[in-house]
Amino acid sequence: MTVGEKIRKFRTEQNLLQKDLAQKCRMSESAIRNYELGNRTPSPKHLEVIASALGVSVFAISEPNLNSELGVMHALFEMEENYNLKVVEENGIYCLQAAPKKRGQASISDLVIEWGEANKKYQAGEMTKEEYAHWKDTFPESIAINRRK
């Protein structure tokens, strides 16, 4: 989901018009419209103002930053929503589970299974570190390679 789509999502969930959000942010209505349409990208400062006006974390409306723990968490939250990723606890250990897809959703579980199979081969010594890295670098084309071995 793009930054603009996220802004629109949170704005409409709160039954706010673009005009209402613009007033709360002390911005123009056209700025909010252009952000939502993807014609412009808000600066980090404007993202903070919009997030504050919507009552959400700036990480919830930003592009995922996978170089920070909070960015990774918000990427996982989005994956939970869009791909049916689940957090499960067994004996005090929390894991991510790629649940079977819901109607109309991409099947992340099938892709995670492929990854798990490649990783299992790497851990068993059936793939070298270089082969495993190449498998990841060429994914999804590498799925066919994984099935042949």
TrEMBL record:
SUPFAM superfamilies: lambda repressor-like DNA-binding domains (SSF47413). PROSITE patterns: HTH_CROC1. GO terms for cellular component: cytosol. Keywords: DNA-binding. The keyword DNA-binding applies. CDD domains: HTH_XRE (cd00093). Gene3D superfamilies: lambda repressor-like DNA-binding domains (1.10.260.40). Residues 7-61 form the HTH cro/C1-type domain. The keyword Mitochondrion does not apply. One of its GO terms (molecular function) is DNA binding. InterPro entries: Cro/C1-type_HTH, Lambda_DNA-bd_dom_sf, TransReg_Diox_bact_type. It comes from the Bacteria. This is Helix-turn-helix protein. It comes from Cuneatibacter caecimuris.
